[in-house]
């Protein structure tokens, strides 16, 4: 089959299906490379190897390299937009707020239902590993997830859906697909609410900023907390009991208030970003190519 025939066949597939397949493939390529590297490259050299591969991944999917015919499509899907200082500041406020919201949801959740510690830590065992090597793994795993999942889901998947169906539908579809892609993980039920809310927040941030970078930063920081605390005991264990046993206490009230305040701060920051987007209503670069 010739390249033109492949292109025509791909073009006959509904845009929504193409977007989902493309985003999933782009994300899985990066994460799969990381997992394969862990199996074939000895520690700690996989850190250096993956750093180089992540740089190549970033360059290619942001628009560099062959073929030239897809450069604009890749730039648009990566949301390659130069951000004004005001957008940077608000984007970072929203990213930090996102991290606090996600962690607060987990704390509040596990004060209502008991923490399933064994299910959470079954896939991430750092026992017997030097602390410095454990932290290298945590940081690199967080970098890979933060970059590759944002590029795949909030970039290559969400951008064409935004163009065709609008941001609300696009963000909702991506959140559902993102959740479905994580159904294999044993710890999903306790993270169900946090996962859906987190995906929606990252989708809103990507659209409001016209950039993936603030969301990448928030995603990476969130996963550093998750890998080092919730999914392992590198920095300690969560030992609070459900309020059904302890009664309503200051710890639960404080985290509930923190959740409310951080969610309000995120909403404010995204609202300001949307206002700035409307004030500077330039079309997204290569918008027509994003729906190919």
Q: What do you see in this structure?
A:
The chain is an all-alpha fold. It has one domain. Helix content is 74%, strand content 0%. It is built from 12 helices and no strands. The protein has helices spanning 3-12, 15-40, 45-61, 71-77, 85-112, 117-121, 131-165, 167-181, 188-209, 213-230, 243-246, 250-279. The protein is globular and about 65 Å long.
Brief synopsis:
The protein is mainly alpha-helical and 292 residues long. The protein is built from twelve helices and no strands. It has helices at 3-12, 15-40, 45-61, 71-77, 85-112, 117-121, 131-165, 167-181, 188-209, 213-230, 243-246, 250-279.
What is the rounded distance between the termini?
20 Å
Arithmetic mean of pLDDT: 90
Uncertain spans, ≥5 residues at pLDDT below 50?
Answer: 283-292
Structural class: mainly alpha
Number of strands: 0
Name the shape in a single word: globular
- Written as H for each helix and E for each strand, in order along the chain, the element string is HHHHHHHHHHHH
Total domains, how many?
1
Sheet-strand content, in percent, reads under 5%
Total number of helices = 12
Strand count, sense and barrel status of the largest sheet are:
none
Instruction: Report the radius of gyration as a whole number of Å.
Output: 20 Å
